[in-house]
Amino acid sequence: MAALETGRPCGQSCAGFGLPPGQLLLACARTAAEVLWTMEEGLRCASLSAIIGEVWGDPRALGFTATKRLAMRAERQGVHVFLVRFGGAAHLSAARERWRVRSLPSSPHPYDPKAPGSPRWQAELFKGRGMRPGMWEAGYDRAAHRLHLVPALRNGAMAVAAGPASPAGLAVSR
Amino acid sequence: MERWQWRQAQHRRQASPSAGEAAEDAAPLVLAREGPHGPVIHDVNAAARAADMRPGARVTDMRALIPDLVVAKAVPDQDAADLVRLAHWAQRWCPWTRVDGADALLLDTTGSDHLHGGEAAMLRDMKRICAGLGLTARLALAPTIGAAWALARHGGNGTICSPGGMADALAPLPAAALRLDAGTVLLLRRLGLKTIGSLAKVPREAMVRRFRRIEVPTCNPVIRLDQAMGRTREPLVSVQERAPLRVLRRLAEPLGDLDGLERILTDLAGDLCAVMGDSEAGARGLRFTAFRVDGVALTAAAATSRATRDSAHIVRLFAGKLDRLDPGFGVDSAALAVVDGEALIALQDDLTGETKEALAMAQLVDQLSARLGEDAVMRPVSLGSHIPERGEVFRSAVRPVKAGDYPVQRLGRAPLRLLGSPEPADVIHAVPEGPPARFRWRRKLHDVVRAQGPERIAPEWWREPGRSRLRDYYRVEDDQGRRFWLYREGLLSDGRGGRPAWFVHGLDV
C-alpha cells in the first residue's frame, strides 16, 4: 500500500544522497506482518548497514510488542532501523526515537529565485530515550553529506547533539 | 588391450510391428524426406537396396522404376532421440557406450565380455536381443574404433577381429571404410589406392608428405589409418550422465506430524550437502518431495540466489513451506533433490571479509524471496534509456542481473520516489508551454509556489510508435513545501494529438 501511494524509491536519486544504487535491496511485502518479518530477517544479516520499513496506516500487526522486538534486536545487532509510517496515528511504540516530519518551503535557490532550492523539513522529536523532545528545521547539505538541524523554536534545546548524521535520517520513525 | 565394438542399428522399421519380418523385407520400402525439388529418399530397406535404390535419389524417379514402392516419411529427429535411448539401453553390456553418427553405436566392451560368456557369445546375445526389438544389427568387434567401424560396414556381420589379425582383416576392405569423406576416397581411387591394404603398403613418408597440411581427420588417410591400426589414441567418451544429486530417506513407520517432516528435512539436507561436497556442486534450486502412504507425493520447492552447500541455510529456505503440506495418513519416505545446480568449489574467507558479506547478503535474498516470492525482492538495474521508468527498473535479486550496455546517468535531479506509473493531473498553466501554476492530483488541489523546468526528454523513436510525444519535466513545489515531479506530454503545436496531458511522475524531487 505504501508503494502504491508513494511509489518506489529511485536508485539514481539515492546516489545523490551517497548511496550507490547497486547496494539497494528492495523487498515488497503484502501485509504489515510480512514487513515486520522482513525487517527482522534483515537484522539477522550481518551485511546490511540500515533497514528502512514502510507501513501505511495503522495495521494491527504493528503493536507495541512488535516494535519492541525490532528495537531490541536492532540494539543488539547495532544496525540502524527506520520504520516509516504514512497516514497513521502515533500509537504506542517502543521505538527509541520517534520523529514527526513535515515538509517546509525549501530554501532559496542560489541562482534562480523561481526554482525550488534544497529541501527542508520540520522535524519534531516527540519521544526519545534520554533526550529532550523538541522541534527542528532540517536541511540536507549535499556537499558535507549531513543533515543540519536548526532549532525552530528558540527554546534552548540545543543540547541535542545526537542529531542523525546519516542520510537515512530522512526516513522517519514515528 | 582395448577392444572396441561397433554396432549399426539399421533404419527404424516404419511398418506396423504386426507385419511379419519376411513380408516386411520382401517389399521394397523407402523413407523419404523433403528435398529442394520434391521428396528424396532418406534410407532404404534390404529389398529396396536390392532393387538398386540409394539414399539421395528422388522418390518420383524410383516410383517410375517400381510403381508399388512403399514410401514412409522419415523423422530424423526422432530417430536420433531413439538412438540416444538405445545408447543408454546398451549399457546392459558394458558401461561405456556412445552414439556414433546418425545410425550407429560404439561400445567399449573391454573387460566386460566374460560377463556374457565370451566375445562370440556376447555378439550372439546382442544380435538376438536386437532382433527381438525389430532392429537389424550389423556387429563387429575390433581392438580400435576405426577397425570396428570398417568391419561393421564393409566386413562380414559379426566379425571378431583379434589384435594380431587386424591388418589382414582390414586389408581387403575399400578405402571408404577408413571413415574418409567422398572427396578423399575419390582422390585415393584416382591414385589407384582402392583398398586399405594397398594404402597400407604405400611408404609412410610419401603419405605423410602428401597429406601433411591436412588436419581434418576425415580428409587425411594417414590419421585414419593410424587410428584404425591403433597407432594413435582415440578415446571413447561415454554418454554416461552425471548422477542426479538426490537423497532419499525411508521411514520405518509412517509419519503424520509436521515436526517429524522438518526433522527429516534436516537429515536430508545434511545428506545432500555431503553428496554435493563430494562432487563439488552447489544447489541453486531444490525440491523436497514427501511420499504419502496413499500414493500422493507432496512437493515444496526453493531457489537460491547463489549456489549453496550450507545445510542450515537449506533448512531455513523451506521453513514456511512445510506447513502447507498435508501429511494425511502419514509420510513413509522423503527425498531432497537438486533441480538446478552449478559447480561450487570451497570458498575461503579472504582478509577483507568481503566473501563473508556477499554470502550473508545472498542468504538474506534467498530467505526473503522464499517467503515473499521471487519477484518481490528486487535490485535496481540501470538500462540505457532516458525515459525514467525505462532507464531504471527493479529486477528480481535471485537471478543475477546485468546492467544495460549503456546505462544512462541522469544529469538533472531525479525524484526520491518514483510512482509506479505516471498519474494524470489537472493542471492550470501558462499557455502554450509555461510551467504549471496550480494542479489537482488525487482529488487535492496544490498551488505551485516555485517551479523549475522544463527538462525535455524526447521520445525514443526506435522503440515507440511514431506518434509518441515528448515529455517536459518540471520540478514543482507547492505552498506547503511538498515537492512534485510533473511532466507535460507533448506540445500543443507538435501535431501529434490534441491538447497535451499532464502527469505526476515522482515525489520529493
Automatic annotation (TrEMBL), chain B:
Coiled-coil region: none
Would the keyword DNA damage be found if you checked this record's keyword annotation? yes
Per the record's keyword annotation, is GTP-binding included, yes or no? no
From the broadest rank down, the organism's phylogenetic lineage runs: Bacteria, Pseudomonadati, Pseudomonadota, Alphaproteobacteria, Sphingomonadales
Domain of life the protein comes from: Bacteria
Pinpoint the UmuC domain residues: 27-150
Keywords recorded for this protein, A-Z:
DNA damage
Q: What is this protein called?
A: DNA polymerase Y family protein
Q: Where are the transmembrane segments?
A: none
Tell me the segments the record calls region Disordered.
Answer: 1-25
**InterPro entries linked to this entry:** SulA_CellDiv_inhibitor, UmuC
